[in-house]
Amino acid sequence: QVQLVESGGGLVQPGGSLRLSCAASGSIFNIYAMDWYRQAPGKQRELVATITSGGNTNYEDSVKGRFTISRDNAKNRVYLQMNSLKPEDTAVYYCNRRPSSLPWGQGTQVTVSS
User: Which residue has the higher pLDDT, 19 or 102?
Assistant: First the structure.
C-alpha cells in the first residue's frame, strides 16, 4: 500500500525558512510528477509547486522566487524549501503524485507568525 508522509513543518517567524519533506513508500516513484499543495483554514486546497519526472518545476505565482521544489528519486522523497516565509503561507502542506493521485497523507502544519 502506497503512503505519503509529510514532515518538516513548524512555527517560524516571518522571513524565516523551513524545509518540508514528503516520503512516498511502496511505489515506483520516479515515473510520477510530484506536487506540493497547501490548505489554509477556511480555504480550499491549492497547488503550490510541481516537479515532473524529468525535473522540470512550476510554481504558484505567490511563491515564485521563495519556494523551491526538488526530488531525490533514490530516496523516494520530494522536498519543498521555503524561504522568506510570510504569514499568508500559514497552512497545512500536503504532497501527492500525478497522475494516479494517492490518498492524502496527514500533512504538515506550517505556521508563520511573530
Answer: 19
